[in-house]
Structure formats: structure tokens, C-alpha cells
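Hello, quick one for you while I still have it in my head. No rush at all, and the record is pasted right below.
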Amino acid sequence: MKQALIVIDLQEIFFSEEKNYLYQHEQLLENVNTVINSAKIKKIPVVFIQHTDQNPSDEMAKGKYTWELHKGLYRESNDIVIEKITWDAFYQTTLEETLKKLGIEQLIFVGAQTEFCLDTTIRIAYSKGYQHNLLVKGAHSTLNSNQLSAEQIIEHHESVWNNRFVQIQPLDLYKL
């Protein structure tokens, strides 16, 4: 099954200001880079999804430092970058067309935020026929909400997704 790694919204906003730090952001970056490195060695295409707010004053508006993909990500010039304007990485983007052009049958997900862009994209991917997808444990994260801690949000979503929308895999499978 031909795979693609989908790296969602790992942008500077989540690493440059303490108030916006993702849960375990330093370990998250290390884990995501482990998965990216594994994908590159296995010649799996890496697709970076970049949230782009349409309001020019927003912190995630195109061109702002906080909008940039995190400088610590293992990125190469031939990696695909797709901007999105909603939680759904398929909505009004070239993601589906890109995946079809590459002959992709299975998606591997990492990124942020667990309950927003990751959740929406995982479910939409399933509805679009990508029904054998993977999620790497420890390679996605979010922020605390008013109701739940980031850890609780992650645990909850993993319990809902696992063996329904994705199969959760341990990070160890990606360590070389």
C-alpha cells in the first residue's frame, strides 16, 4: 500500500510563545522528526499542511513568523506544502488531487491540534476512501482547554479514532 506522511500545522505559533506551547512540544518535535526521517529513508512522500488564516491580523496569517512551519522540522525543498483555511486539510486545497496523483492509498498522520485540524482531517480522509490510515502515538498534540487537559484530549481522541478512523502505531516502529 503506497503511503504518504501528513504533517499537520506544526507552525511557529506552537513553539515560539509559551502561552501557545503544545503539550510536550519539545518531545513532540523530536517524535515528529523521527517519523519524517523514517518516511524519507523509505521514500514515503511527506506533505506538510499549513494553516493559513484569512484575517491579516491573525497570528496565523500568511507571511507572519507565527504562521511559518516550525524551523526545527526536518524539511527538504522537494517536500510538498499545502496551505489550508479551515480545520479540514482537504477543503478547498490540492491535498486530494496531490494524493491521487501520487497514487497514495494510506495516510500516516502526525501534527496539531489533536481535537481540531487533526481530528477533522482524519475523519474526512476516512470518508474520502482512505480507510487504512495510521496515527503515530506521541507525534500529535494540542493545548489545554477550559474543560480538559491536553493529555485528556489526546487520550480521548485516540480512544475514539483507534481501529475506527486510524490504527494507532507506537513511535518505536519509526525509529531506525
